[in-house]
Amino acid sequence: MRDALKNLFSNQIILEDNSQFYYTIKPYELTNALDNVIAVLQEYAFTKEGDDNGQFSCKLYKTKEGNWYDKEEEKPAANNNILRALKLAIDNDGKVKV
């Protein structure tokens, strides 16, 4: 059990304001109205514990080409700056590793 939790929170990213987020990545199948798979995206599930406003969590989606795909129901307007910073941090982190 402890190893599963360790692997679950092994990915961490720190933004410029020193806020720390943990994230997991898994495949996500995007389907159309007929339930046919039209694309497979990478789903990034972010969490931030200990936030003043409670626990922050969100999901972001990225295509295999490296473009971000936004689902409208996942995007509250108040968190636009955080979402933008997370996307930028993931993009920059990916470029450093290559």
Descriptive report:
- The chain is an alpha+beta fold.
- 26% of the residues lie in helices and 43% in strands.
- The protein has helices at residues 2-8, 80-97; strands at residues 11-14, 20-31, 37-51, 54-62, 68-69.
- β3 (37-51) and β4 form a beta hairpin.
- The longest helix is centred in the C-terminal third of the chain and has 18 residues, at 80-97.
- The mean pLDDT is 80.
Could you give a quick summary of the protein structure above?
The chain is an alpha+beta fold. The protein is built from two helices and five strands; from the N terminus they run H-E-E-E-E-E-H.
- Tell me, briefly, the overall form: globular
Radius of gyration: 14 Å
The amount of beta strand, in percent, is 35-45%
Structural class: alpha+beta
Main pleated-sheet profile: 5 strands, antiparallel
Q: What is the number of E strands?
A: 5
Q: Assign a percent range to the helix content.
A: 25-40%
Q: Whole-number average pLDDT? A: 80
Low-confidence sequence ranges: none
Order of helices and strands: HEEEEEH
Beginning-to-end CA distance, first to last residue? 32 Å
Number of discrete helical segments? 2
Strand order of the largest sheet: 1-2-3-4-5
